[in-house]
Design goal:
Blueprint lengths: L4 E4 L22 E4 L12 E7 L5 E8 L4 E7 L5 E8 L3 E5 L6 E3 L2 E10 L5 E6 L12 E7 L18 E4 L21 E3 L22 E3 L22 E3 L22 E3 L22 E3 L22 E3 L22 E3 L22 E3 L22 E3 L22 E3 L22 E3 L22 E3 L22 E3 L22 E2 L15 E2 L5 E3 L8 E4 L9 E3 L15 E2 L7 H10 L6 E4 L11 H5 L3 E3 L1
Parallel strand pairs: 11-12, 13-14, 15-16, 17-18, 19-20, 21-22, 23-24, 24-25, 25-26, 27-29, 28-30, 29-31, 31-32, 32-33
Antiparallel strand pairs: 1-2, 3-9, 3-11, 4-7, 4-10, 5-6, 5-9, 8-9
Length: 635
């Protein structure tokens, strides 16, 4: 008897088989009612039977191949098993047919037809796949169910691709010659269950087999599946799949990339306890927003790629990684947006890892992370811990001699109090916004080996608790330091390298850091002409950078103490060529008339530039004519 039907409230007339329709198989204990007047589908050996409806355009098309390039016979049966159509097709030639409206078995307001597919001679069916009709690009044929009794099938690749009314697919025999089920039921949005053949000793790929089957809930695996190696995208987009248990051992499996992506109700998954050849899990569980925990086998020494494997798994709280992943190269965005993840421990060594880009971005609950003691090939820490807002400590372990970027590495780590960097980071080129908005960070020591770093723009901006910043004397290739120490309310001391021969940008370098009382003197290059908005609010009594050249410059206090009594830059060789008026601000300080006049005397001759010296003790008595004679407007 056909199993097509529906689960309804219990009623007089019988009850379901408790061994099949029970909670352990995810069935609710309701009564199973077969749909009325649907034909029994009981294919004989080497036969496929389909049940189809006359909805829509009433068409169907498919292609079969036959052993020894034989022919196959298709018969269509209507009401009372009346034979409505019979055709013999050559090997690989498409069959197509348009059902007669209302001529089939009655069911639910439409009618159904049985389609029988058999080899014409005593040969074997080898492949079956739905297809197009010439001139008609519709492939969503109204196939409601299919039964296979064809043990010698070699491929079911794309067999029912996008048949969105397919509800039941049954295999009545082992299929030990079938090598491919790739995209077999892809887009079958009405399919709920799939019971695979009892044995499939030759199958190697199930890539995208059930992708975007938006009603799919259960799969029954073969007892033997030893050659299956490719499962990329197998359940991708199965949006109501809640539980998944893989076979205990999948010895040939190499790919699970995108295998479960966008399974938005998947809350439980049991991976094989043995999958020694698994190499690729790129985006494997991406956007599984209900998934809470995953455990890997202890050893995965073939695994190379975990990129985005758990991206946007917002409820993921526990991941047990293998203790050995010796070939792993990528953890890029692996745990990005895993908002519930509280701790992470990596293997002690990841000898082939090359990137930690964005690995823990937006891990809002992450409290502890143990990085490998050895990851000698890692090249990037780009956004690795960005927005880990409660993470208190980060230890970058071992010598990271190949790391080139720490761009935004731990920005918005609000509770980060300790950042430990290894002694050797010879290749770092940028630390842009590395600790931006790390409000609990008290101190950080950059390695002396960071002598190739060129950019620390916004590196420590908004670090509310930071008291001292020391840039190594060896860090003399810096070209950009804009806002690197800005808005640090507790910062008192800034130690610069002894020289910065290639600096090009110090704009707003330490602006609005109101407790800064010491900035070490540095030697700047003759080409440095952009130090705009250098220091606003401070406790400096002296600003002494006699080689600093500027295109726009300001050192002043808006509020609080006005302690600055002397200010020295390379006035004569500064261009003051950028920005709006005033191009030069030394107002709101404690400069007397003698110091102001000395600065006026040192200024270059300009056209249409303004200098602001107001709110200084010497403003009223200084000799403004000195500056005005050089083209300056004094305010």
């Amino acid at each position: 008897m056909s199993k097509i039907g529906s689960f309804r409230l219990p009623m007089t007339g019988g009850s379901p088989d408790p061994a099949v329709f029970c909670p352990v198989n995810d069935y609710v204990p309701d009564f199973f009612v077969p749909e009325p007047e649907w034909p029994a589908l009981d294919p004989v050996t080497n036969e496929i039977q389909l049940l189809c409806s006359d909805e829509g355009d009433r068409r169907i098309a498919f292609t079969c191949t036959i052993q020894s390039a034989g022919t196959y016979t298709v018969k269509v049966y209507g009401a009372g098993d009346a034979l409505l159509d019979t055709q013999v097709k050559n090997n690989g030639v498409a069959y197509n047919y348009r059902f007669t409206e209302g001529a089939g078995y009655a069911a639910n307001g439409y009618t159904t037809f049985k389609v029988s597919i058999k080899p014409t001679a005593a040969l074997n069916l080898l492949t079956f796949a739905v297809g197009y009709i010439s001139g008609n690009q519709v492939s969503n044929w109204r196939i409601l169910s299919a039964k296979f009794n064809a043990p010698n099938m070699t491929s079911l690749a794309s067999a029912f691709n996008n048949i969105n009314v397919l509800r039941i697919l049954e295999f009545l025999t082992a299929m030990d010659s079938c090598t491919s089920m790739a995209s077999m039921c892809s887009g079958c949005s009405s399919l709920v269950d799939l019971i695979l053949p009892s044995s499939m000793n030759a199958v190697t790929t199930m890539a995208a087999m059930l992708s975007n089957c938006t009603s799919f809930k259960r799969i029954t695996w073969p007892s033997s599946i030893t050659l299956l190696s490719i499962c990329n995208g197998i359940f991708g987009g199965c949006s109501v799949l809640e539980k998944l248990v893989y076979p205990a051992s999948m010895p040939a499996l190499t790919r699970l990339d995108s295998a479960h992506s966008n399974c938005s109700l998947l809350s439980s998954v049991t991976l094989p306890s043995s999958m020694p050849l698994l190499a690729n899990m790129d985006s494997s569980f991406s956007s599984c927003v209900k998934l809470k925990s995953v455990a890997f086998p202890a050893t995965q020494n073939s695994l190379t790629n975990l990129r985005a494997a758990f991206y946007n798994c917002v409820l993921l709280a526990s991941v047990t990684l293998p203790t050995s992943m010796d070939l792993l190269t990528s953890l890029e965005t692996t745990f990005q947006y895993c908002n519930a993840l509280k701790s992470m421990a990596y293997p002690s060594s990841l000898p082939e890892l090359t990137t930690l880009n964005g690995t823990h971005v937006n891990n809002y609950s992450l409290m502890s992370v143990t990085l490998p003691a050895s990851m000698p090939k890692n090249t990037s820490l780009y956004q690795t811990f960005s927005y880990c807002s409660v993470l208190p400590s980060i230890v970058i372990t071992a010598a990271q001699t190949l790391v080139t970027t720490m761009y935004q590495m731990c920005q918005y780590c609000y509770e980060l109090a300790t950042l430990s960097l290894p002694a050797t980071m010879n290749e770092v080129l940028t630390a842009y916004a590395m600790c931006y908005n790390c409000k609990a960070l008290v101190s950080v020591t950059l390695p002396t080996s960071m002598n190739k770093c060129t950019n620390i723009v916004q590196g420590f901006q908004n670090c509310n608790a930071l008291v001292t910043i020391t840039l190594p004397t060896s860090m003399n290739l810096l070209t950009a330091m804009g806002s690197s120490c800005a808005n640090c309310p507790e910062l008192t001391t800034i130690n610069l390298p002894l020289s910065l021969p290639v600096i090009s940008d110090m704009s707003s370098f330490a602006s609005v850091s109101p407790k800064v009382n010491y900035i070490s003197t540095c030697t700047f290059p003759s080409t440095q002409v952009n130090a705009g908005g250098l220091l606003v609010n401070h406790l400096l009594t002296s600003f002494n950078q006699p080689t600093l050249r500027a295109s726009i410059f300001g050192v002043f206090s808006q509020v609080g103490s006005k302690l600055l009594t002397s200010c020295e830059i390379d006035w004569a060789n500064s261009t003051f060529s950028s920005g709006t008026s005033p191009q030069l601000r030394i107002d709101q300080n404690n400069l007397d008339a003698t110091e102001i006049d000395r600065i006026f005397t040192a200024l270059p001759t300009v056209t249409g530039k303004t200098i602001n010296v107001t709110n200084n003790p010497g403003y009223a008595t200084c000799n403004k004519a000195i500056a005005e004679a050089k083209g300056w407007t004094v305010s």
